[in-house]
Amino acid sequence: MPMKAVTTIVLLVISNIFMTFAWYGHLKLKDIEWFRNPGLFTVILMSWGMAFFEYVFQVPANRIGFKGQGGPFSLVELKTIQEAITLIIFMIFSAVVFKQRFEWNHIVGFALIVIAVYVIFRKW
Q: How far apart are CA 21 and CA 32, in angstroms?
C-alpha cells in the first residue's frame, strides 16, 4: 500500500477518535464526580474543542489522500474510507465506554456497509 494511502488512513483514524469523543463522549460526563452536571453550553464548547483536533487530522488526511492533490483516492473513496473508519471506531467506543451490546440487526447493518465499501472500491 502506498505511503500516502497509509498516512491518509492513519490520520482518518485519529480524526475519527476525536470526532467520536466530541459527539458521544459528553454523554458519560455524569459518571465523573467533579463534572456531574455540566450545562449544555459547556458541553458544546468542550465538543467544539475536541472537534478542532478532529479537523487538525481530517483536513490533512483529505488533502494527502485526494487524487486531485496527488493522492491515491477519489473523493468518493475518501468518504467511504472515512465512514468505514467511523463505524469501526464507534463500535469499539460504544462497546468499551458504554458497554454497548450489539444485536444481530446492528451486525447485519454494519456488514451491509462493509459490502458497500467493497462495491465502491471494486473496479468493474
A: 15
Q: Can you tell me the distance from the alpha carbon of 9 to that of 26, in angstroms, rounded to the nearest whole number?
A: 26
Summarised one tens digit per residue, pLDDT across range 32-84 is 776 777 788 988 998 999 999 999 999 999 999 999 999 999 999 999 999 99
User: From the CB of residue 96, how many other CB atoms can be counted at a distance below 10 Å?
Assistant: 9
Rounded to two decimals, what is the model's pTM? 0.86
Report how many domains make up the chain: 1
How far apart CA 5 and CA 67 sit, in angstroms, is: 11
Q: 29: domain range?
A: 3-121
User: 92-100 — which CB contacts under 8 Å span 24+ positions?
Assistant: 93/20, 93/21, 93/24, 94/24, 97/24, 97/25, 97/28, 98/24, 98/27, 98/28
